[in-house]
Amino acid sequence: MVRKATAVWNGTGKEGSGTLSTQSTVLNNVQYSYKTRFEDGVGTNPEELVAAAHAGCFTMKLTFNIDAAGFKADSIETTCGIRFENGAVTESHLTVKAKVPGIDKEKFNEVVADAEANCPISKLLNTKISVEATLE
């Protein structure tokens, strides 16, 4: 399976702008620019998209881990913060809140640690990854 996305850029790095589109068309000519990446402009940026990918991938892997452990999550909410410093992604921090009836804290921490280490986006990223997990 291959998933595709396309970036189109026009102009210089600082004054130009571009669009991002995905094969699924969920993103369809979504604007990005210097301002959306390094300031507070309207649009997206690569780091925000990596954060969305990591949050989504981690959450799905955690769900599979919970299922495999014999439990069913009522809800899982994950926020991902990507730290971008000096031209590099230096950290991905995941904050997860989950409601999983019957699971104890030790088992929950075990399935979270596995998801952190083994979701495909975690494996892809060459950076520090940390998780703060709360079982509600």
Description:
- This protein has 136 residues and is an alpha+beta fold.
- It has two domains: 5-38, no CATH class; 46-135, GMP Synthetase, Chain A, domain 3, CATH 3.30.300.20.
- The protein is built from four helices and six strands; from the N terminus they run βββααββααβ.
- The protein has helices spanning 34-38, 46-68, 105-118, 120-124; strands at residues 5-10, 17-22, 30-33, 75-85, 88-99, 128-135.
- The longest helix is centred in the middle third of the chain and has 23 residues, at 46-68.
- It is elongated, with a radius of gyration of 17 Å.
- The termini are far apart.
- The mean pLDDT is 95.
Helicity level: 25-40%
In CATH terms, the superfamily of the largest domain is K homology (KH) domain
Shape: elongated
Strand order of the largest sheet: 1-2-3
Biggest beta sheet summary: 3 strands, antiparallel
- Which regions are unreliable across 5 or more consecutive residues at pLDDT < 50? none
The total domain count is 2
Descriptors:
136 residues, alpha+beta, GMP Synthetase, Chain A, domain 3, 2 domains, 3-stranded antiparallel beta sheet, 4 helices, 35% helix, 35% strand, elongated
Question: What does the secondary structure layout of this molecule look like, with pairings?
Answer:
Elements: E1 5-10, E2 17-22, E3 30-33, H1 34-38, H2 46-68, E4 75-85, E5 88-99, H3 105-118, H4 120-124, E6 128-135
Parallel strand pairs: 5-6
Antiparallel strand pairs: 1-2, 2-3, 4-5
Helix pairs in contact: 2-3
